[in-house]
């Protein structure tokens, strides 16, 4: 098959979910609704944290940043898909594809790092309660956030630089609703060994590293909670971690499910549908998880809209 170097004028095709007009209309309405709920829900979390002095703590500082990242995360993929459905076009330019992939990788990595940092925050709060305000001071929180952004940007830039030398065949059809790194690399006509190596190394180091940090933090948290004598004290300590545990389980569970389904089946349609879980559903559900069981957030939202408690 003929291969050629890709220029900025080349276009790829995003195959999406279905070509049936009726199905496309349902998909458009469904994804538009999910996107609006995601943006609105996460904006409410950010506004609640910013407006209430009681929530100016490390835990809610990182939560508001997670909400901002989730808005950006979904905004890298869904709007383009909605525009393509509305215009009856599947095309995305080569430059547009790389740009989308670059920002998607940044915000996916940021989600990963922020969840790890939030686990460390809970570890310090429960295992070192007397020194919590000293250890988790505003300067350290800012440094941790800066580190998350720096590592995410550098990793994404490295991944994109690995894609640039690849050559693609004359007609490239991406069996997905966005430019996903793994899919794009495997569609290249040139040798992808180095790109594959860097991609898997990045997944192990920048994916496995934070996850290991989360596991370590919670092993210490569980050990500390077990030493609390009263049942009420144990419940109170553990209740501060439940929302974060739900989000971690959702994020890593859906992400792992997608990559396991990719390894087990060659059905690209199934992989595309499965990827909706961590690219769309998880950012949409995070605000509900953090607000429904959180009296501080609900109280802040109540005060924000001027209602009496």
Explain the overall architecture.
The chain is mainly alpha-helical and 309 residues long. It has a single domain (8-304), classed as Rhodopsin 7-helix transmembrane proteins (Rhopdopsin 7-helix transmembrane proteins, Up-down Bundle), CATH 1.20.1070. The chain is built from twelve helices and five strands. It has helices at residues 21-51, 58-75, 78-87, 94-127, 132-135, 138-163, 181-186, 193-226, 231-239, 242-264, 268-292, 295-304, and strands spanning 3-4, 11-14, 91-93, 168-169, 173-174. The strands form two sheets. A three-stranded mixed beta sheet has the order 3-2-5. Strands 1-4 form a two-stranded antiparallel sheet. α4 packs antiparallel against α6 (138-163). The N and C termini lie far apart (68 Å). The model is unreliable at 5-9 (pLDDT under 50).
Question: Helices, strands, pairings?
Answer:
Layout: E1 3-4, E2 11-14, H1 21-51, H2 58-75, H3 78-87, E3 91-93, H4 94-127, H5 132-135, H6 138-163, E4 168-169, E5 173-174, H7 181-186, H8 193-226, H9 231-239, H10 242-264, H11 268-292, H12 295-304
Parallel strand pairs: 2-5
Antiparallel strand pairs: 1-4, 2-3
